[in-house]
Specification:
The chain is α+β, with helices and mostly antiparallel strands. The protein contains 2 helices and 12 strands. A hairpin with a 7-residue loop joins β1 and β2.
């Protein structure tokens, strides 16, 4: 038994052969066909018409296939070029942002006439119980335990551990941190402690002192750790209780600890107030 595909192939071959024979006869005889030739022409013409249409259809599909293949290759090439351009643009953007941060840090370094070591943040404690970061400078670079860590925006924290090449910094928001501080405008003094989240508490502020929400809090320099006049944060909430001699004050740090990338470690204790501190 012959399959339908074999029968179709045979029919096509016969049509092609008859078409070739007819074209050969017609080419040799320039006169109009007569007799058998005319009969063959009548029989073959419908098939020839269908064959011609089929041939053009196959040719169109074939050309379309090659066009699609070429378009797909061109599309892949363009996607690859676009990806490379986006990567290059991203690298340029990161470089520009890093340069802006470094210019900002260098300007701050010039304001403080004391040795400072620039360090990059290379790790953060993910737990909710401890607020610490790891920086890429250690004792081999001159970093010591107890050294204050700052950025232009304000106090970051203090070094609690130091190895040869790395150091751990206890952040200002950690409950174990403490900074002797004062309100810059009224000079009301107290102790800023970490609140465990993104805020601090300002303890031991006497009720008799007039302070307001939005007032700047700076380091007093009396704790022997942080130089005088470093920005700590701004007062965000005040609760004056009916009893007691102290006010309940909350402070929002100026430093955004979630986006820290570079910091300064001050390597010598302060002996004078910062320029511009009032």
């Amino acid at each position: 038994m012959f399959s339908k595909r074999m029968i179709l192939v045979a029919v096509v071959i016969v049509l092609v052969a008859v078409n070739v024979i007819l074209l050969t006869i017609t080419g040799k005889n320039s006169q109009a066909p007569s007799g058998l030739g005319r009969g063959v022409l009548v029989v073959v013409s419908p098939f020839q018409k269908q064959f011609t249409a089929f041939f053009h259809s196959v040719k169109g599909i074939w050309n379309q296939y090659f066009f699609l293949v070429s378009s797909a290759k061109e599309n892949q090439r363009l996607k690859k070029a676009l990806g490379q351009s986006l990567q290059q643009l991203n690298r340029c953007s990161e470089t520009e942002l890093a340069n802006d941060r470094l210019r900002h840090l260098l300007g701050f370094e010039e304001e403080i006439p004391r040795p400072m070591i620039a360090a990059q943040v290379v790790g953060k404690d993910p737990s909710d119980w401890s607020k610490t970061i790891i920086v890429d400078k250690g004792t081999a670079d001159g970093v010591r335990q107890g050294a204050p860590v700052v950025i232009p925006e304000g106090i970051v924290g203090v070094v609690v551990e130091a190895s040869g090449r790395y150091a751990k910094v206890l952040l200002l928001t950690d409950p174990n941190s403490a900074v002797d501080a004062l309100v810059q405008h009224t000079r009301a003094r107290g102790i800023v402690k970490g609140g465990g989240a993104d805020y601090c508490v300002f303890d031991y502020v006497l009720r008799k002192h007039e302070i307001s929400v939005g007032d700047m809090v700076v380091s007093s320099g009396l704790d022997g750790v942080f130089p005088k006049g470093l920005r700590v944060g701004r007062i965000s909430e005040i609760v004056r209780q009916n009893a007691g001699i102290f006010q309940k004050v909350s402070v929002t740090p100026y430093v955004d600890f979630d986006i820290l990338e570079e910091v300064f470690v001050i390597t010598e204790p302060a002996d004078e107030g910062l320029p511009g501190e009032s």
